[in-house]
Description:
The structure is a single chain. This protein is α+β, with helices and mostly antiparallel strands. 24% of the residues lie in helices and 33% in strands. It has helices spanning 12-16, 38-58; strands at residues 6-11, 23-32, 65-67, 75-80, 87-96. β3 (65-67) and β4 (75-80) form a beta hairpin.
Amino acid sequence: xxxxxxxxxxxxxxxxxxxxxxxxxxxxxxxxxxxxxxxxxxxxxxxxxxxxxxxxxxxxxxxxxxxxxxxxxxxxxxxxxxxxxxxxxxxxxxxxxxxxxxxxxxx
Length: 107
């Protein structure tokens, strides 16, 4: 496992503020700081998704996490809050950005 350095942005019903009471989906876009080109991203994508999945399995919240099937671009999992009946379907979407686009996406 290699360490990931990243910034993030939220989307989905949770990020948009349209989530229903007990269930929501979250698109969690992870901008990898050490990836600067599409070629590099394609080469590292599967390793990055495997690393993210491994981190989830080792998380202090692992008993509340159900890992789903990876898609070509995302790691999917469900997070169940123990303190309530809320569940979140989460897609972790690793990607990259260039220094020129950082200001355009709010960083």
